[in-house]
Each structure stands twice: as C-alpha cells, then as structure tokens.
Design a protein that fits this description.
heterodimer, A: mainly alpha, MetI-like fold, 13 helices, about 5% strand, B: alpha+beta, Rossmann fold, OB fold (Dihydrolipoamide Acetyltransferase, E2P), 2 domains, about 35% strand, binds adenosine-5'-triphosphate, binds magnesium ion
Chain lengths: ~290, ~375
C-alpha cells in the first residue's frame, strides 16, 4: 500500500499542472496547427485542406518582419546582458544584508502593467518630450531628431521590458557561487580579474543561458513595443500576427506565421544550447 | 602565558635556527559586525618551523580559522605582524603569498574536472605545459586519484573531493600548507584513514602543515606541536605529549582528554613541590611551577589512567586520597570508576583489564586512589 502510494506520488504532484498545460497549451496548439492548414474565410468558415500555402505566403510576404523580429530580439538580449550582468553581480556580491531590498527595487517598476510601462516610454521618448525636448532646446540635438518610431526605440523598449527576466536568473547563478571558491582561486595565485574570468563567469553561465531563453523568446515575439514605440518600418512579426488575427481575420496565415516563428525559435534555442555545450549548462542550472 | 619547562624537550621549541616558516607576532583581529567590535583573535604569537606539522586546536569560535585566514592573507590583522619565511607579509594579498589553503568545505571549482582543478594554480603561475602535465600527474598519484582526472567534483565522494583539494594545493609546492578542519566532513573511518594519509603525504612532500582542528585526538596523533587556543588566545603551545601530560592551564587540562581537577590549600612547600591539605588521612604532593606560599589554594590535575585504585591505603611516597565509588563502567579493555571524595570532587579512574575482568571495587565501596606525584600538575 505504501509502495503503491510512493509510486503514485509523482503523478499526483504533476497532475494539476499537467491538466492545466494539456487544456491551455496543448489544445490551443493543436487547434492552431490545424487552423494553419485550413483554407477559407471568416464569412464562409474554414475547412481543413492540408493547405500549406499559408506557410508559403507567410514566409514570402513577411520574411522581412521575421528577420527583423529575430534581430531586434537578439539586440535587446545583448543589451540586457550588458546592462543586467553588472547589476546582478553587484547585488549578489556587494548587496550584503540588503540583497532582497535591491531585488525588490529592481522589480518595482515591473509591478506596473507592461503596456503602461511601454506607454510611459513613449512619453519619455516623444519628439519634444522630457528627454529630447530639453536637449533640443539646449541645441545639443537637431530639431528633427527623433527616437520614437526608430528601431532604437523598439529595441530599447524590449530591452527594458524584459530586463528582470535576465537579471534574476543571472543573480540566482551568481548568488549561488560559494565565496570560498573565489577565495580558493585567489589563494591559487589568480588575481581579481582572473578569478572573474575563470571562475565567476563560467559559474554564472547557466544563469545567463536561462536569462537569454527567458528574454529572447518573448522579446522576438513581442508586438506591444513595436506598436507603441515603433513606426511603419519597425513592424515585428508579432504585429503581423496580431493584425492577421484581429483585423484581417486571416486565421490560417496568422497561425502559420505563429508556427513558423515557434519553429525558428526552437531551432535557435537548440543551436544555442548545442553551441554552449549544454547538457552540462542545463544540468548545472537545474542544480 | 606559556612557560616552556626545563626538560620539556625540543618539542616545546620551534625547530632549530633556520628561518621559521610562519611567524605570528602579537596578532590581533577584530571584526566589526552590526556596529560592534568582535575580537576574534586577541593577541597571538607563534613561530612555526620549516617542515613542521603544527596544529591549532580549540573549541568552536576560539579563533582558529581567523588565525589561519590571516596566515593565508584572506584577513588583514587589526594589529600585529605576519611573517612568512622572515618576510613581513601582513598586507600582501593571498595570490602573492607562497602558502596554499585547503578549505573545510574543499571549495573545489565545480565547473572544472579534477585535472583542471589541480592544474589551476600552476596555470596562473604560468608554469610551462609540459611541467604542468608532469606535476599534476605526480600529485594525483600521491593522492591516489589516477584515472579520475575527468571527473567533476560533484561526481566524487567526500573523501575523493578532499584529496582533490589537497592535491590542488600541494601541486604548487607551497612553502606551507594551511588546512582548515580538512577532515571535518568525513565519517569516522574515512577520517582515520585520511589522518594516516595526510601524515604520509606530509612526510613525502616535506612541506610545513598548519592544521586546524577541534578534535583533540586528531591533533595529538598527527602534530609535532600544538597550539591550544581558547577565546582568541593561545593557552599552551607545546608538543602533544607535553600538552597531554602537563597541561599548563585548567582550560587545557579540561579540553584535552579526561582529566581530574582537585584543589587544596598548601600546607607545606618543600623545594619544587607542595603538600596540599585535603582529607585527614589524604596525602597529596604536587610539583609546582610558580612560587606558592602556605595557605595558597592550588589546583592540580591528574589523568585517570595514572591513578591506581585499591581497597587498602597504599604504602610509599605516593599521593593518595580516600573516596567512595559512585559508578563503575565496564569499557571493554578497561574499567572506569567514578570516585567521590569527601570534599565533593569527583575523580575518574581508568583501570586496564589486564589479567581478569573482575573489578577491584564495587559501587559504594570505600577506596584509596593513589598516583605518583610527578604525574600530577599544578595549574595556573
Ligand atoms: N566575518 C566575521 N565577522 C564577525 N565576526 C566573525 C567573523 N568571522 C569570525 N567571527 C567571530 O570570530 C570568532 C572566531 O571565529 P573563528 O571562525 O576564527 O572560530 P574557529 O575557532 O575557527 O571556530 P570553529 O571551530 O567553529 O570553526 C567567533 O566568535 C566568530 O563569531
Ligand atoms: Mg573554523
């Protein structure tokens, strides 16, 4: 009896989450996959016809937006690494007794709704707004200078909006480093820089890896930043999909584009994992 | 506070006239935590000889780790001077000191395999590749880890990790190796095995070992000399035999092994010994170190195995006291008696089971305890 219960426990534990995912992830995914292969229109209804044309159309018409999304996502991710790592490092190693306070401060802006935050960026970056206005008045910038509606605004917004998802995993990895291990490196003739390069950095990689996954994926499929901060030539694939679903109501194309993006991201993730020599990274991350 | 006695032998002194490997000169370390000054080491001086196996022994929190971290360079002394081979290194960072440390938690690099862990120090010192290969191979042989070069630390047992930590430090041929409770995390059997291994390795490589432990038997069996620390100070610094046989202070007597403490008023002083007043028929003579006068109270210690238990009052020049057996415990190779004296003190006696296993006395019996006066010591 006890053994039976022990054998069933893991299943019992995974049951609620499993059901949740089955209903709210697997079902919509299957529906969407089927939708992407249907043909028809909203008025007459869609029928399943193995219609691969949606994929071909999606790729031919929107390959620019797909590439742009991946590039923006990548750029935002890189910016986040550069900005986030020192922050995570500082909190982990210099935060002392107030680590949780600093973490809270880091998260504080993100308690505000995602869309609202992006809109406030729009105010901030607007052509004669708080940031550019004074600079222009001082003659430091030309009058026709603008940030809004440029790729910089969109990438900046993306980098800002997903920052905690980069910093937190990096912080967790850094925080877990045993200070004695750093002392050991120092004892074994490594100076501060060598200790950082040979010990801190490699040990933080699982965190960076997790951070990249958690920011690159949502950043490259985001549509809010591009629609609030961007212009006509910064449209990302997320905007296209949103538009196809809600405005054009071309569900097959929207679904096909979603799937294409998903496939591309998966391929990218696996290539990335492979390149980093991974199992190990994932294993260390899981420890 | 530690006066080395005449006749204590070389064990009491740092070896010979060469430059000592490590010197601590009136070293004080005060931490500031929560705005309060915490004195961890209150003024420690010691001289550790080249090639010596030197132990820092003491209870938790007495400042052993702090002392060692000042030798390694992880902590700067608040006051005092640290010298390595005659050179003042008080403000020299760890990576510029020719000593290596073995951490209690091993502190192996989790992302590197055994080989890379061990080679780390040599690579930082820019030792040529060929020599790194040779030296790492050699040391792995000494610590018996050949064939495990590709393992990660977490794929190894505690004892194996311990040996990697040892190899990682030793491979650099430091002029001194600092070990902070290196066997603390191991089970008893492995611990005993590693004690022997460590001694063997130390003999083989001939490096000065500074060994931190709070396990007295470990310190006694392994060390050439021991500094017994208490509350940030060195209570006694001497060889194991002297520490055990002639504890200098009450603390040392109590901390090392089982010892009996007796106190009595001096009735007479003749030369280097004093006669103490205890019970009416008792006779206690104790060698004294300092000048004591009549009517001073003197505390003395005598080890349980030095005491003979008998039912008759013994003859001869022995010290002897009368008491009542309050407990008899059979310990296999010996019997342990607890004997209550009239004055209230309780004395423990170990008696070997040499011939037969019958006990000399039973609970409640009145017995005489006797010992050679030179086996007892007056405490400061
Ligand atoms: N970084 C620190 N900040 C404040 N106080 C400290 C610090 N490190 C040690 N102490 C204090 O200094 C004293 C000595 O500590 P230390 O670590 O040297 O003891 P120890 O003899 O090694 O003990 P243990 O056997 O438990 O390891 C302790 O009272 C400890 O609380
Ligand atoms: Mg300690």
């Amino acid at each position: 009896m006890r053994r039976l219960r022990a054998a069933l426990t893991p299943y019992a534990l995974i049951f609620p989450g499993g059901v949740w995912l089955a209903i709210f992830f697997v079902v919509p995914t299957v529906v969407m996959l089927s939708l992407s292969l249907q043909s028809g229109n909203v008025a007459d209804g869609f029928v399943f016809t193995w219609n691969w044309q949606s994929y071909v159309d999606g790729l031919t018409n929107y390959h620019d937006q797909i590439i742009r999304s991946l590039v923006y996502g990548l750029a935002a991710t890189l910016i986040q690494i550069v900005i986030g790592f020192p922050v995570a490092y500082w909190i982990a190693f210099k935060g002392g007794r107030h680590k949780s306070v600093y973490l809270f401060l880091l998260l504080l802006p993100f308690l505000v709704s995602f869309v609202l935050r992006t809109i406030s960026w729009q105010f901030l970056l607007s052509d004669n707004g708080m940031l550019l206005g004074p600079l222009k008045d001082l003659g430091l910038l030309p009058h026709d200078f603008r940030v809004l509606a440029t790729p910089y605004a969109v990438i900046g917004g993306l980098a800002y909006n997903f920052l905690p998802f980069m910093v937190l995993p990096m912080y967790v990895a850094l925080e877990r480093i045993d200070p004695r291990v750093l002392e050991a490196a120092n004892d074994l003739y490594a100076n501060k820089f060598q200790t950082f390069l040979r010990v801190v950095l490699p040990l933080s990689l699982p965190g960076v890896f997790a951070g990249v996954l958690m920011t690159f994926v949502p950043a490259s499929s985001d549509y809010v930043n591009a629609s609030v901060l961007g212009g006509t030539n910064t449209t990302m694939i997320g905007n296209v999909i949103q538009n196809q679903y809600l405005v054009t109501q071309d569900y097959p194309t929207a679904s096909a584009l979603s799937f294409t993006l998903m496939a591309l991201l998966l391929v990218g993730i696996f290539a990335y994992a492979k390149a980093l020599g991974t199992e190990d990274v994932l294993e260390v991350a899981a420890r | 506070m530690t006066e080395i006695q005449a006749g204590a032998g070389v064990a009491g002194e740092a070896t010979s006239d060469q430059v000592p490997a490590i010197e601590l000169d009136e070293v004080v370390k005060e931490y500031v935590s929560h705005g309060e000054v915490v004195p961890a080491v209150k003024g420690v001086s010691m001289t550790i000889g080249e090639g010596e196996f030197f132990s820092l022994l003491g209870p938790s929190g007495c400042g052993k780790t702090t002392s060692m971290r000042m030798i390694a360079g992880f902590e700067e002394p608040t006051r005092g001077v640290v010298r390595l081979h005659g050179q003042d290194v008080t403000n020299v960072p760890p990576n510029k000191r020719d000593v290596n440390m073995v951490f209690q938690s091993y502190a192996l690099f989790p992302h590197m395999n055994v080989w890379d862990n061990v080679a780390f120090g040599l690579k930082r010192k820019k030792v040529p590749d060929g020599e790194i290969r040779r030296r790492v191979g050699e040391i792995l042989e000494i610590v018996d880890l050949v064939g495990r070069e590709k393992r990660r630390p977490r794929e190894m047992s505690g004892g194996q990790q311990q040996r990697v930590a040892l190899a990682r430090a030793l491979v650099n041929r430091p002029r001194a190796l600092l070990l902070d409770e290196p066997l603390g995390a191991l089970d008893l059997k492995l611990r005993q095995h590693m004690q022997i291994e460590l001694k063997r390795i130390q003999r083989e490589v001939g490096i000065t070992f500074v060994y931190v432990t709070h396990d007295q038997s470990e310190a006694l069996t392994m060390s050439d000399r021991i500094a017994v620390m208490n509350d940030g100070l060195v209570e006694q610094l001497a060889g194991p035999r002297e520490i055990y046989e002639r504890p200098a202070t009450k603390f040392v007597a109590g901390f090392i092994g089982t010892s009996n403490l007796l106190s009595g008023v001096v009735r007479a002083v003749n030369g280097s010994s004093a006669v103490l007043a205890l019970g009416p028929d008792d006779r206690v003579v104790v060698p004294i170190r300092e000048t004591v006068a009549e009517d001073d109270t003197v505390e003395l210690t005598v080890r349980p195995e030095k005491i003979t238990i008998s039912t008759e009052r013994p003859e001869g020049d022995l010290s002897m006291v009368e008491g009542t057996v309050s407990e008899v415990v059979y310990l296999g190779t010996s019997n342990s008696y607890a004997v209550a004296l009239a004055g209230g003190a309780e004395i423990t006696v170990f008696q070997q089971n040499a011939h037969d296993s019958t006990t000399t006395a039973e609970r409640g019996d009145t017995v005489w305890l006797s010992w050679q006066p030179q086996h007892s010591y007056a405490l400061q």
